[in-house]
TrEMBL record:
One of its GO terms (molecular function) is isomerase activity. This is L-rhamnose catabolism isomerase. InterPro entries: L-rhamnose_isomerase, L_rhamnose_iso, Xyl_isomerase-like_sf. It comes from the Bacteria. Keywords: Isomerase, Manganese, Metal-binding. The gene is rhaI. It comes from Gilvimarinus gilvus.
Length: 430
């Protein structure tokens, strides 16, 4: 196994922090035992938790106004893999990469697979892109792709998705995520039903090419790049499309793709109930699709989402196996630091949700005891599970204090020397 940061440095830093961690861990263990919870079982769950990292999140992101590249930007998917290896080595819970095509296209996928394997990294969902025109493209996606009025454009978009599946098979992926920006900017510009019918026909054509052991995840989004209507605008259009397309076609929930204050945890509950929850793009937002760091603004909402997910596991909900992934844009932070932080913050929401006394909650719910039901969730959320997360990292050879160890490694400064900015590398989303 190859490590981008010296394991000796990680061990040296961990040795300094272990005595205090052990004290905090033992104290939490005693507290949880009094609540009928076994900290050993919780740490195993923390060690098993994993979330995929978006390849496109490793470069500095920007907005339509500007992008301010950081030092040592990854210039290609091979360097993005190295940065993802750092995120996994420091966080201990990010062992898969989600690529985006054609941004991450290579000539030799076996070479890329070998490159990732040496770091112990795998490949999760592959993402297609029919929201940008490529230089050598026949038809433009200006007026849409899978729902375009012109059959030739739809055929081109379908062919691209089938090609992405072929590339994904070479990397060992088992899921394709399909997000399209199709929609309209003017009332009357698009016939809602005909556009949706064209989309459904295209989705079925992609599903026809889906290997038996794969899933297809449809991602909804309220607006942008379309600003009046979007063909897959909300979970309603999404679940209808997933139900129409096929059993292994499911809905993906990107947290930032909803209007402010939408009850996302209830959407998750509905998708679980109808076996149509494919997975998540975790991030946070205050206004639009801000793609900010997960749990940085609404940690209680993220906890409530995991409360639904843990409840489904607790009830042994059939067909429940959602894929977890981050989807963020890092405009003012070191992307590696934000992704380490965010992976851990999503892991934190999961472990806190495991602390919920579900028997008591069920009782309070049937007794309509709202305050005690709410307090039962708050008791879990207000528990500081940091010692469990840190001990899980230590046990996996990751860093007890991930950001301090990453900064002490000087990895970013070394990357800056190794990756001279040719001004051309535009790895983040703009
Ligand atoms: C759309 C989206 C989608 C990706 C893109 C990079 O906003 O969330 O998941 O394809 O970001
Ligand atoms: Mn997304």
């Amino acid at each position: 196994m190859k490590y981008p940061i010296s394991p000796d440095l990680v061990a040296e830093k961990n040795d300094q922090l272990t005595p205090d961690l052990q004290k905090d861990y033992d104290a939490l263990g005693e507290q949880l035992e009094r609540r009928g919870l076994d900290i050993k079982a919780l740490i195993r769950q923390a060690e098993d938790f994993d979330i995929a990292v978006p390849s496109w999140g490793t470069g500095t992101g920007g907005t339509r106004f500007a992008r301010f590249p950081g030092e040592g930007e990854p210039r290609n998917i091979f360097e993005k893999v190295e940065d993802c290896a750092v995120i996994n080595q420091m966080s201990g819970c990010a062992s898969e990469i989600s690529p985006h095509f054609p941004w991450d296209k290579v000539d030799d996928f076996s070479e890329l697979k070998a490159h990732s394997s040496q770091y112990g990294l795998g490949w999760s969902s592959v993402n297609s892109n029919t929201f940008q025109d490529q230089p050598d493209q026949e038809c433009s996606y200006k007026y849409g792709s899978l729902s375009h009025a012109d059959a030739a454009v739809r055929e081109q978009a379908i062919a691209h998705n089938l090609q992405v599946i072929e590339w994904g098979k070479q990397l060992g992926s088992k899921v394709i995520t399909v997000w399209v920006g199709d929609g309209s900017n003017h009332p009357g510009q698009q016939h809602f039903q005909r556009a949706f019918e064209r989309y459904l026909a295209s989705a079925k054509a992609i599903y026809q090419g889906l290997p038996e052991d794969w899933e297809m995840h449809i991602e909804h989004k309220m607006f942008e790049p379309a600003f009046y209507s979007t063909v897959i605008q909300d979970w309603g259009s999404n679940i209808l499309a997933a139900m129409e397309t096929g059993e292994r076609c499911k809905s993906l929930v990107d947290l930032g793709h909803h209007a402010p204050n939408v009850n996302i945890e209830m959407i998750v509950s509905r998708l679980i109930q109808f076996k149509k929850l494919g997975g998540f793009h975790f991030n946070d937002s205050k206004y639009g699709d801000d793609d900010l760091d997960s749990g940085s603004l609404h940690p209680y909402q993220q906890f409530l989402i995991f409360n639904e997910l843990v409840d489904a596991e607790y009830r042994k909900q059939p067909g429940f196996a959602p894929a977890y992934m981050l989807d963020q844009s890092h405009n003012v932070t070191d992307p590696i630091e934000s992704l380490i932080n965010s992976a851990t913050e999503v892991q934190r929401s999961f472990i806190k949700a495991l602390l919920v006394d579900r028997k008591a909650l069920e009782r309070y719910q049937s007794d309509n005891d709202a305050i005690m039901a709410s307090n039962t969730l708050k008791a879990a959320f207000n528990t500081d599970v940091s010692p469990i997360l840190a001990m899980a990292r230590k046990n996996k050879g990751a860093a007890i204090d991930s950001l301090a160890t990453y900064r002490a490694s000087g990895y970013r400064q070394q990357a800056a020397k190794a990756r001279p900015d040719t001004g051309g590398n535009r790895s983040g989303i703009v």
